[in-house]
């Protein structure tokens, strides 16, 4: 029958318990804490005690169970340390599991190819924050407040209040602004990065995409320099026989501005479904840096001039590998990515 002496005797036995093997420890657990174990039997007897006896022995009985559980856990930890400190618990001679190797994402490959081309032309690479303020994304780039050009880029605002709201950058031109603020002239940089616009997701558009923008500022920089830089890039990227054409366009931060097309690398200008039978494919926008932008960033526009350009990495990758749906780049579908294992 359960009594104080019985509990004290079992407490003493617990303090002396040892286990050399996992099997011994499991037998010990069953003996003390199993459904038919010693402590379980005492709890069954406890139900038959008088209220006064329950008050006297209840706390001691709970303490016995807690101590038994703790002791078994301590012995288990000791056994694990012995295994870890001695020989390995697994067979080192067993052949390993085959791990399927991945490959680089087509967007990453295209990004590095673009940057490597401009590095050969003497450009350095500059990067900046994805969460920006209104000044670096719009104000310093000749986007006055309430200017209709702001509507061209539907913005995700993080903190829309105040004179200089916080937002997710809509282009990497903000990095160009930071470069003009911090770097001495002349400047020749390319700015890669992820950008965000509140657009409906479709085969031709996404709310997240990647850009590479370029900026060159020095004395006597002309539109002819811009045209030559774009032509050399296009021939490096799409082939030596690639031709370009420049169409007048509008951007708030460049004047004059142009859209640039390259001759279709599928039909070589003859016309196909990829180029919609025009023989041309649009790749980027560019222009001469507006004097107002230079002045806003502390550069004397009477002494210095420059050009800027920007392209979507997804767009370049689509043209390079004839990918017809922009969403494939973001879905991580292994069937799609495996198509590039031999190309990349």
Describe this structure in words.
The protein is α+β, with helices and mostly antiparallel strands and 344 residues long. It folds into 2 domains: 4-85, no CATH class; 106-340, BirA Bifunctional Protein, domain 2, CATH 3.30.930.10. Helix content is 40%, strand content 20%. It is built from 12 helices and 10 strands. Helix 2 (22-33) runs antiparallel to helix 4 (51-85). The protein starts with a helix and ends in a 7-residue tail after the last helix. The model has no long low-confidence stretch (mean pLDDT 87).
**What is the alpha-carbon Rg in Å?**
36 Å
Q: Supply the CATH architecture of the largest domain.
A: 2-Layer Sandwich
Helix content: 25-40%
Which structural class best describes the helix and strand composition?
A: alpha+beta
- Write down the CATH topology of the largest domain: BirA Bifunctional Protein, domain 2
- The overall number of domains is 2
